[in-house]
Specification:
This protein has 275 residues and is mainly alpha-helical. Among the domains are: 100 residues, Tetratricopeptide repeat domain (Serine Threonine Protein Phosphatase 5, Tetratricopeptide repeat, Alpha Horseshoe), CATH 1.25.40; 65 residues, Tetratricopeptide repeat domain (Serine Threonine Protein Phosphatase 5, Tetratricopeptide repeat, Alpha Horseshoe). It has 15 helices and 2 strands. A two-stranded antiparallel ribbon has the order 1-2. Strand 1 and strand 2 form a beta hairpin. Helix 3 packs parallel to helix 5. The longest helix is centred in the C-terminal third of the chain and has 18 residues.
Length: 275
């Protein structure tokens, strides 16, 4: 800090900032989105106290927000060397490992986190995604529901649960969950897309199209293609073919995916018609 002048005219040095002061300054910068400044401030603290836990945790959080996953993972690892039961570090390292595609170690960290603190909804969410990726729908849905016990109205958790229910072919349950999620995030295109798929799988194509259609011809073409794809998977060949043709007609440019889907649907319809 800058020196000040005393009442007698003498120069008085301001007290040096304490570590607590510097941590508060860095934390404020992080909360206000001044991430580069926050990173610099945390690093200044660590240059003096290399294992200061609050600075390590704060810097790890900044690196996570900047998408520097390897740097974040290393910082969380340093924290765990100081305290292997640090739940913030377990969760943070687990979440950082997933974008690095180190799934087994990430899962291990997250499982340890929720074993110590069952209120870690981010860990539950990530564990659900990992279970879905491995095809274990029951474990995935259990994890999402555990997260929702902590964050009952979280649209992201509800979307993941709804999508997992679609993958389980429990379309009516998926619809219920996704409709509830839209109450909290009515503008979410991802929620609308998944809800439309759940509805289309139940054969209610027009309702699904109404959810997906945008204003542009391109958006409408995509809607017809996506709902047509569900119709094709349901072996409803006439509807699928009609929707793919409509997608090609609406698209302002050549729509390769719809063209490929149309050819596939026609081929499957021919095969199905054979005696």
């Amino acid at each position: 800090m800058m020196p000040t002048q005393g009442e007698d005219g003498s120069v008085v040095s301001a007290p040096a900032l304490t570590v607590t002061d510097r941590l508060e300054e860095a934390g404020l910068a992080a909360r206000e989105g001044r991430l580069d400044e926050a990173s610099r401030l945390y690093r200044e603290i660590l240059a003096v106290e290399s294992e200061q836990p609050d600075a390590l945790l704060g810097l790890a959080g900044v690196e996570t927000r900047l998408g520097r996953w390897r740097d974040a993972e290393g910082l969380y690892g340093r924290l765990l060397k100081l305290d292997e039961g640090n739940v913030d570090a377990l969760e943070g390292r687990g979440l950082s490992l997933l974008p690095l595609r180190e799934f087994a170690e990430g899962r291990s960290m997250l499982e340890r986190a929720v074993a110590l603190d069952a209120m870690r909804w981010r860990s539950w969410h990530a564990l659900g995604v990992l279970a879905d990726q491995s095809g274990d729908r029951q474990a995935a849905q259990t994890a999402y529901r555990k997260g929702l016990e902590v964050m009952p109205a979280h649209p992201g958790l509800m979307n993941s649960l709804g999508y997992s229910l679609i993958l389980s072919r429990r379309f009516d349950e998926a619809e219920q969950v996704l409709r509830e999620a839209l109450r909290y995030a009515p503008d979410s295109s991802r929620l609308k897309g998944n809800l439309a798929m759940a509805i289309a799988w139940q054969g209610r194509y027009a309702e699904a199209l109404d959810l997906l259609r945008g204003e542009s011809d391109r958006e409408q073409a995509v809607a017809f293609n996506d709902v047509g794809y569900v119709a094709m998977l349901r072996q409803d060949w006439p509807t699928a073919i009609r929707f793919f043709e409509q997608a090609l007609e609406l698209s302002p440019t050549y729509y390769q995916r719809a063209a490929d889907n149309l050819e596939r649907a026609r081929q499957q319809a021919r095969e199905a018609a054979k005696p």
